[in-house]
Every structure is written in C-alpha cells, then in structure tokens.
Amino acid sequence: MDLAINPFSSGTRLRDMIRAIRTCKTAAEERAVVRRECAAIRAAISEGDQDYRHRNMAKLMFIHMLGYPTHFGQMECLKLIAAAGFPEKRIGYLGLMLLLDERQEVLMLVTNSLKHFEYLVVLNVGRDLNHSNQFIVGLALCALGNICSAEMARDLAPEVERLLQNRDPNTKKKAALCSIRIVRKVPDLAENFMGSAASLLKEKHHGVLISAVQLCTELCKASNDALEYLRKNCLEGLVRILRDVSNSSYAPEYDIAGITDPFLHVRVLKLMRTLSQADADSSEYINDILAQVATKTESNKNAGNAILYECVETIMGIEATSGLRVLAINILGRFLSNRDNNIRYVALNMLMKAIAVDTQAVQRHRATILECVKDADVSIRKRALELVYLLINDTNVKSLTKELVDYLEVSDQDFKEDLTAKICSVVEKFSQDKLWYLDQMFRVLSLAGNYVKDDVWHALIVLMSNASELQGYSVRSLYKALLACGEQESLVRVAVWCIGEYGEMLVNNISMLDLEEPITVTESDAVDAVEAALKRYSADVTTRAMCLVCLLKLSSRFPPTSERIKEIVEQNKGNTVLELQQRSIEFSSILQRHQSIKSSLLERMPVLDEANYLLKRAASTQATISSVKPALAATPGDPLKLPNGVGKPPAAPLADLLDLSDDAPVTPSAPAAAPNDFLQDLLGIGLVDSSPAGGVPSASTDILMDLLSIGSSPVQNGPPTSNFSPPGKAETKPAPVTPQVVDLLDGLSSSESLSDENAAYPSITAFQSATLRITFSFKKQPGKPQETAINASFTNLTTTALTDFIFQAAVPKFIQLRLDPASSSTLPASGNGSVTQSLTVTNNQHGQKPLAMRIRVSYKVNGEDRLEQGQISNFPAGL
Amino acid sequence: MNGSPEVEERLPWSRGGNRGGDDDRFVLFVNKQGQTRLAQYYEHLSLDERRALEGEIVRKCLARTDQQCSFVEHRNYKVVYRRYASLFFLVGVDNDENELAILEFIHLLVETMDRHFGNVCELDIMFHLEKVHFMLEEMVMNGCIVETSKQNILAPIQLMEKSS
C-alpha cells in the first residue's frame, strides 16, 4: 500500500472523531469509524509525522478505551516521552501506561523487540528521574510505579531510593508508591527501603504519609525482617499520626463530612493491624488509641463509618483486650441494625471475620443475620448466607436448616444455586441423624433438584445403600416426591434408582417407620411413574438411561409387569440417541432370551462402601479427570471400580447372553476380572453424556459413577462405534491396557482414548525431599500442543503438619506460566491427604526446547519457617 | 546447548492465587447505556477479558436499584459503585479492601472533576479523557491512593493549562 497518498493522513480532530463515534448507530458503524481512524494514525506514524503526534495519542487512548487494539501506538509513546516539552511527555507517559499492557500479548513471541523496548523505556525513565523539573520527575516515577518489570525495578531502584530523600513532598510521595511496585516485583529489595519508609512517617504532608504507610504495609508483606524493624521503629509514629488526624481541627483540604482525611485513617489502621498481629506488646501499645478512635468517631456519615469499620477489623485482627473487643462487637451490632444497606453489608462482612475471635458474640445476632438471607439485595443475601453457614453448629443445625430450606421454596431462581449448595453442605456435615439427613435431602431435591450437584446425590445414594432400615422409607418418600416434582432432574435420578433397587419395599410397605402413613402403590403404579419419567420430554440422556436400568430391574422384582416393561424397552430400540438405543437393545435381549439368569443378574446392588466413597469424593473434588482416569485404568482389579458382581457368574454364559458367543474373543490374556467388568457395563449408563444438564466433569471420578459408569466420555470422542463392532476389532485393541478386550457391550469406551493420550505423558515425581514429595501429572488439550495443564500434588512425608504452605515456580523466558491457587495451605501429616494446585504452562518454543522449571516451596513446621528449592528437568519429552 | 536449558536466575516468582493486597484493581466510568467512558486497569487483562468483564459488571450494576447496597461481588473482585446522574463510577477492589472508604474515594474523584470542569458531565469526560486520566493518575498509582487533596491533585494540571 502506498502510504504517501493515503487520503486519511491529514486526520480529523479528536473532537470530531469522538462525535463521529457517538453518532454511530450500530457496532459495525463504530468499527468502521475506528478502522478508518486507526489507518490514518498508522499512516501518520509511518510518515514520522510530528505535528499530530500528541493528538493521535489522545485518539488512540479513546480507541483503546473502546476496546480496540492499539499496540501499534506504543513506539509513539516513547517518541513523545523523548520530546523535551512537558505536555508531550505528559501524554506520552499516560499513553505508555495505558497502552503498554497489551505488550505482553503482542510482543511476547518476539523476545528481542520486547527487550529493546524495555531498554528504551529504562533509558527514558532513567533520564527523566534525574530531570531538574520536579513534575517531569513525578511523571517518570508514576510510570515506573505503574508498569515496571522486575528487571526495570532492579535497574532503577537506586534512583528511586535517592528520590525518597528529595525535598519536594510530591516527589517523595510518588517515589514511595513507586517503591511499592519495586518491592512487589523484587521482594529481596525490601530491606533497602525500610529505613527511608520509617522516616517518611515523620512528615507532615498527607500525601507523603499515606504513601509511606502503604509502602510500610507492603514491606511487611515482603519481608519478615522489615516487619520486625517497622514494628520497633514506626508504631510510635503511627499512633501519633492517628491522634493528630483524629483530633485535628477543621482542615479544609482534607475534610470529608467533618472528618479529617478518612483515607489516611484507614491506611494507618490497616498498617497497625499488620504490625500488631500476633504480637502482644504492640497490641497493648495501640490499645488506647484504638479505643479512642472507636468511641470518638462520628457514625452518622459514611466517612466516619469507614473508619469505624477499619478500626473494628484491626481490633479483631490483633491481640486486643476483652474490653476493646466488646466495643468492636457493639459497633458491629449497631451496623447490623442500620437501615443503610451499605452499612449492613460491611457488618456482615466483618462478622465473618469476628467468628474466629468470638463465636458467641456473633451467635447473638443470628436472628438478624437470618433475616438478611432473605433480603431483597443479592449482595447482602450472599454475605448473610455465608455467615449463617459458618454459624451452624450441633445445637442450631435443625432450626437453621429448616429456615433455609423453607426459604429455598420462595427464593429467586438465581439465588437457588448458592442456597442449594450451602444447604447440601450443611446437611451432609451433620448427617449423623440419618433420618433427618434423608428428609432434608428429599426436600431439597424436590424444591431445587436441578441445582443439586452430582456428587451430592451420589453421596445420598451411597448412604441409602448402607442404611438398610431406612430404605423402605426412602423409596416411599421418593416415590411421592417423584409424582409431585417430576421436573427436578436429580430427584428423578435418585428416585428412579431407589425404585429400581427397592421396588418391593415400595409396593409392600416394608420396614415402615412409626411416623409414616402407609401408602398403597401397586406394581403397575411404580412402573407408570418410571415410564413417565422416561418419557418426559425434558429428561436428559443420563436420567433416561437410569430409567431404563430401573425398568429392567423392576421386570425381575415385579414379574407381572414384565411384559409391559418389555414393550417399553422395545419402544426405545429405535431411539435416536445412540446410548439409549444400545441400552434398549441389550436390555431387551436380556428380557427375551435369558430368563434363567435374569434374576441373579438383576439382584440388588451390593452395599456401597461409604468410607471409600467419601475418600474418593474428597480426592475427586480436587483432581481433574486427567489425573484420576489413567490411574483407574491402570488398576483394573480395583474393587471400587468393579463392584462384586452377582454371584460371579462364569464368563461363558455372560458372553452367551450377549449373543456374541460364537466368535467372542475370550483371549487368553483376558484377566479374571472380566465378568465383573461385564456387569459394570450392563449397569453402565450414559457413555456419551451429551446432555447440557450433565454433571460437572470432576464428579465423573467417584465410585458410584464408576459403578453406574455415568457420563464418562467427553462428547468429542465421537459416538461409540459400539456394540455392533465386529469382535475382530476388539481383538486388535492393546490387551494390557484394560480388560476391555472382552468388553463386548462396550465396543469403544472413553478410557481407551484417554489412556492413550495420557500414556504419552506419564506422571513424574517432580521433587522429593525428606519432608515433601511433589508429583506432576500432565494433560494437553487437543489442538494446543504448546499448552500443558499440570496438576501438581503435594504430599507431606513427615509426621507433623506443614502450615502456610506456598508453592512457587519460575520458568525460562520462552515459557509462560499460570498458577492457580492451591487447594489448601496446610499439608496434613504422614501423607494423610494431599494438596493440589494446577499450573498451566505454554511453551512458546514447543518442539525446540523442552520444559524446564525451578520451584520453591515455603512452609512452616511447628511455626518454624522452612524453604526448599529445586529444579525440575525430568519432564516427559514433547511437552 | 544440550541438556536442560538453564533457568535464568533473575526471574519473577509467580505465585498462585490473587495478590491478596488491598489495592484498587480497576476504575471504570460507564454510562447508563453500558458504554465505557473511562477504563483504567491496575493489573494485566487482555482486551477480550476486559470487554467481557466490563459487560458483565455493568449488567449487574445496572440491574440494581438505588436502595440496594453499593457493592457487587463479581468473580474474585468486589466492585464498589456509585451513580451520579447518568454515569456509573465503578472501582474494582480485592476482597479485604474497605468498601466504605472506596465509596468516599469515588466521591472525592467526582468532586475533583467538578472543581476542574465545573459541574462535570459525561461529555466533559469524553472530550477531556486525558485530563481525567491525569487526575486519576495523581490520585491513584499502581492501585494505591497517593493524594487526597483536591488542590494538590489539580495543581499539575492547572500548571500545564497555564503554560499552553
């Protein structure tokens, strides 16, 4: 393109551009205007136009704000910064700060240009830091404070340290805030700054004070030495600052509603909290001033309440005297009964923190808090719900749960999910009283079954399976609920499972409880209910599959209905959902040809192992499918996965049953566990779970899932080529992987493709010391070879728990790393459960350089700090 | 080069979780139609993430009534907002920030703009975007409050206007 004749290079005025954008009626029009302007600006840039540089930058900022890419203007910022005049520099620096954050995306791949760019920035900023004009120095400090990287921080830290001693207060305050960024980027530098930070607290200028206080807070976070130093050297200064601002007479510049500088109040109180946490001496030292602030501050305006709020938090956070705590709790009580929603919100927020200090005091406000759960404002409801959840204990669980469940009935749709999750969690936590647990769960399933997570109703089934005396009651209650609330997906699933298992208890009123009314349900009523659930238009595949299994079981429990069930199953033989079709064909084959073994095949499921389920559930809420699936595939003998079958029928009749006996590949390598596997597949539900309502993926690892094999394959694996595949195909499968070779019903299960994929990247022990083992397992998204999801699992090998556990990682420049939060910061002793954390690495030189990582782990043993480091170079090839 | 590539000594240590700080993480001005009028982020977000975040937050805030509280929890942010005529002023903060103080900060920001523009309106902000940024820059740096005196905030801007 010949830029010289670009018709737009003369450009429009900023005002005209904004007007043009404002008159746009559609997004497409706006895009067109922006495209035209960007083209003009690019042209001006490449021509080296100087006259309009300033204006173009202002335009770019506006375009950037609208959310369009403006990376091409980054170099222009530098040119403006390099100019001599203040206005140019001013806008150049602003542009640098606003536009630069795109740099990471655009220039990441071109490391050299990034380095060059950084070099230029350091050069310019470094020069301006030494400028004679204090405003230009301020600009450079501000830019550095907003954008500097670790490298820049190291290069320019001495300059900034020097500027902390400058005479001009505006320069000082900016240098102090700039130091915050530096310390955050390079914590090792913290000690260099602590002396000057403490002496800044002696200043009078509020800007300097507030900046210095924030710098001190940051230093405390960065280094323990700094914390100790500041505790010794600046508490006195802080008390003085707080006394001065709270007693000061009217100061117009800092006055807000009669209070002098609430911002400074708040920051000082915060720093006091940081310094006095778990330190009795300093807590005592600030006791008086806190009491003074808590009693003297006006509470009829927002500014005063902001101070009181911070003051309460500080009192709760330090080793305060009991008198001071009572004062704080009383303030919260006043807040909670305030009519202003903002005040009530912060009160709830603070009560959460107060629970750890004084549960009894918070319990006194229980009734008010419970009212807040029903507030019209969702922010308040959420906070209150969290708080109620924390307040529930053995004595009040029943009444509080009742309140919450009652409210579930009338609450907003979008609040139901949170509420349901909390109720389920409470009910499970206090499930010793099984009857109560069942009643609550049945109510929740009826009221909000669509919001109940898979692992919750799986746990319910496991419990019912173990509570033989309550099975009759459960199946009858669920039957009634099913008739009343058939649109709640999880309710239908649980009810249908129960009817299938305990159908005879339903029709014969077996093991009635005293409180129960007997009900009359005929066998065909039960079949009716299940049929209705199967045919309901909105039922998803998993539910329908469970209905089919239930019907199959009922045909053996209720022989008179068996003909009818056969018909229903027949109807589904032509179902367009492959999974249901396959199931129906298999089931009708069982119904028609194999009467002899049907009853033993369809016996009740063995009692599910509760302890093991809970253990697995806890693990699976952390682990991803990637890490657990291969582990399961590798241990085919795992009794959890393969529940004891019905009297272990020999392999041959089962193969017979499927009518594939002629050439069934009963290979010599087939493990003995094969029949069990069969049974599992017979019960198998939803290999292709394409339903939108399908459970959360992580839930697909628990035993009940394995038992029922619900929804195990992700949709992208394609439909199972399935039961019609010629047996020859089965034989070609690699025998050692799983017992699938004889897996006739299940021609292609998901675990095959999964295990193949994972086989390429075996898990590694990334790090091991006397105290700690770290293992990594890997997973790649198809189509993204550069990206690897790593699941790190930490195991404590000692007999003492490790607390304050922090895992850190560093990678070379060509790799990008993202760390998610760890599942916990405490590693229980003796490998009793582990902590997991997921990392995502993107190798920008995939195929050329292998992954490498350095790790650092810090934790406390019996309160004593430990640090371990290591380098991981044993990553599997190809990551 | 063979063997494992060396990991440079001077690397930033990245840590899991959020920063756990008590800073502002973004400042947004949005009008009643949901159009962004100013956006300043103090942490890195890609353009797409920004657009998504702005859309989601604005939808949440616009749906609220005057009686409801001024705080909305969104993802791992807490958004403190305040409405002046047709403009919403939003500040995203970490969870342990003092919400009431941020409300006061928003008011201070609006008062500062008022003092400069004289009864500030949406158009003032649009046409003088860079000036509003200058003010904000004087007040907040890297997410921390640096100056709360209107006079001090406006001094460099007035100086610049006088010189040009």
Automatic annotation (TrEMBL), chain A:
It holds the Pfam family Alpha_adaptinC2. Its main location: membrane. InterPro entries: Adaptor_Complx_Large_Subunit, AP1_complex_gsu, ARM-like, ARM-type_fold, Clathrin/coatomer_adapt-like_N, Clathrin_a/b/g-adaptin_app_Ig, Clathrin_app_Ig-like_sf, GAE_dom. Residues 714-735 are annotated as: Disordered. GO terms for cellular component: AP-1 adaptor complex. It is found in: Cytoplasmic vesicle, Clathrin-coated vesicle membrane; Golgi apparatus. One of its GO terms (biological process) is vesicle-mediated transport. SUPFAM superfamilies: ARM repeat, Clathrin adaptor appendage domain. Keywords: Cytoplasmic vesicle, Golgi apparatus, Membrane, Protein transport, Transport. The keyword Zinc does not apply. Residues 714-725 have a biased composition (Polar residues). Residues 759-876 form the GAE domain. It is a peripheral membrane protein. The keyword Ribosomal protein does not apply. Belongs to the adaptor complexes large subunit family. Subunit of clathrin-associated adaptor protein complex 1 that plays a role in protein sorting at the trans-Golgi network and early endosomes (TGN/EE). The AP complexes mediate both the recruitment of clathrin to membranes and the recognition of sorting signals within the cytosolic tails of transmembrane cargo molecules. This is AP-1 complex subunit gamma. The lineage of its organism: Eukaryota, Viridiplantae, Streptophyta, Embryophyta, Tracheophyta.
From TrEMBL, chain B:
InterPro entries: AP_complex_ssu (IPR016635), AP_mu_sigma_su (IPR022775), Longin-like_dom_sf (IPR011012). It comes from Eragrostis curvula (weeping love grass). Keywords: Membrane, Protein transport, Transport. The lineage of its organism: Eukaryota, Viridiplantae, Streptophyta, Embryophyta, Tracheophyta. One of its GO terms (biological process) is intracellular protein transport. This is AP complex subunit sigma. Belongs to the adaptor complexes small subunit family. Residues 25-162 form the AP complex mu/sigma subunit domain. It is found in: Endomembrane system. GO terms for cellular component: cytoplasm; endomembrane system. The keyword Lipoprotein does not apply.
